[in-house]
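Thread amino acids onto this structure.
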């Protein structure tokens, strides 16, 4: 899947649960984050284990790559402009994060893994992530709930200041 398809998965999951997400686009500026995401109150979402009913809108940068066969850690490519944009929003108190998708196979055999981490944690790890931190996404019918769970975990980490 292309990065744009993976962004669409997040947008569909959030909008389908009663939240609001959309792709940011400005053809005159570079470095904008990919998505603006406002999660629905947890009670509205069809998930287990509520912990918050308020989530301020946040910015997500979406990255994708093939799932590494052996390397445990790998670098995510964030441009300088993307880093400056996300850091400024983070410094202003806005939730910012990296959504990292790993892929294996194609077509009906496609397997996806997802990790969403706060911008603060991402910069502490020097733009590296770990294959083991990515959670498998279910088949297409279960993917929306898996994506929402990852986004709510991102929110929880942001609230805890990580």
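Threaded sequence (162 positions):
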């Amino acid at each position: 899947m292309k990065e744009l398809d993976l962004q669409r998965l997040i947008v569909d999951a959030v909008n389908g649960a009663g939240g609001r997400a959309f792709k940011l686009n400005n053809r005159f500026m570079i470095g904008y984050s990919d998505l603006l995401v406002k999660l629905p109150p947890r009670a509205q979402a069809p998930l287990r284990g509520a912990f918050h009913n308020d989530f301020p809108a946040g910015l997500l940068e979406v990255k994708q790559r093939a799932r590494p066969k052996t390397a445990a850690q790998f670098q995510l490519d964030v441009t300088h402009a993307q880093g400056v944009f996300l850091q400024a929003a983070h410094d202003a108190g806005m939730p910012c994060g990296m959504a990292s998708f790993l892929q294996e196979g194609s077509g009906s055999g496609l397997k996806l893994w997802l990790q969403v981490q706060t911008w603060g944690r991402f910069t502490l790890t020097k733009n590296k992530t770990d294959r083991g931190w990515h959670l498998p996404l279910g088949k297409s019918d279960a993917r929306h709930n898996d994506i929402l769970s990852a986004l709510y975990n991102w929110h929880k980490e942001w609230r805890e200041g990580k």
